Amino acid sequence: MDKLPGPLKDVVERLTRLPGIGPKSALRIGLHLLKLPRESAQDFGRGIIELRERLCLCEECASLAETSPCPLCADPARLADQLCLVADWDSLLSMEEMGLYKGRYLVLGGLLSPLDGVGPGNLEFERLRRRLARGEVREIVLALGATLESETTASYVKNLVEADFPRVAVSRLAQGIPMGAEVKYMDRETLRQSLLYRQKV
């Protein structure tokens, strides 16, 4: 990589900071960008800037949207008494693609992981408390996956709810999700079965 021209080396180094992209993939992407017509490359750059400028976090569910509240939170047909907790936005997308869940969401922004320095203060638990304090939610559905971090997060949520909001039921996706898996990587049928046969925590 040291022998690359400066501008290409810079792009490759930036691309390797993205998740799942190693040096070889970054070089291939960088070379592809170099072959793009000037207008296409400029459009690509503008698209990245607009991604930052036009998207915001929904004030209700903390998901990515162009408006706040987002279309899901603004939809009066969604059930206000069910709140599905997901770790991240792409898990929310996976749940929505299934087309079965009709309640509302809250994106935690990750999972508790003390070893990685992710504690309760780093996630959207205060937003969760505010939602529950309004008194609309009757059931929380935990759609967090089946990793050690998701189990830690589920336990934290269960304790929080039992202590401060005892009338709210807490359920989780049924264990059709294999241990070590994340919601965003599940196929639709596994997600559908897990939601249909969710269990009390």
Kindly describe this structure.
The protein is of the alpha/beta class. The protein has two domains: 6-54, Helicase, Ruva Protein, domain 3 (Orthogonal Bundle), CATH 1.10.8.420; 64-200, Dna Topoisomerase Vi A Subunit, Chain: A, domain 2. It is 44% helix and 14% strand. It is built from eight helices and seven strands, in the order H-H-H-E-E-H-E-H-E-H-E-H-E-H-E. It has helices at residues 6-15, 23-35, 38-54, 71-74, 89-98, 125-133, 148-164, 188-196, and strands spanning 56-57, 64-65, 79-86, 103-107, 139-143, 169-172, 199-200. The strands form two sheets. A five-stranded mixed β-sheet has the order 4-3-5-6-7. Strands 1-2 form a two-stranded antiparallel sheet. Strand 3 (79-86), helix 5 and strand 4 (103-107) form a beta-alpha-beta unit. Helix 1 crosses helix 2 (23-35) and helix 5 crosses helix 8 (188-196). The chain is elongated. The termini are far apart. The mean pLDDT is 91.
Q: Can you give the mean pLDDT?
A: 91
Largest beta sheet: strand ordering: 4-3-5-6-7
CATH structural fold name of the largest domain: Dna Topoisomerase Vi A Subunit, Chain: A, domain 2
Describe the oligomeric state of these chains in a short phrase. single chain
CATH secondary-structure class of the largest domain:
Alpha Beta
Number of domains: 2
Poorly predicted runs of 5 or more residues: none
Biggest sheet architecture: 5 strands, mixed
How much is the radius of gyration in Å?
A: 20 Å
Task: Give the H and E element order.
Answer: HHHEEHEHEHEHEHE
Helix fraction?
Answer: 40-55%
Task: Name the CATH architecture of the largest domain.
Answer: 3-Layer(aba) Sandwich
What gross morphology would you assign? Answer: elongated
User: What portion of residues belong to β-strands?
Assistant: 5-15%
**How many individual helices?**
8
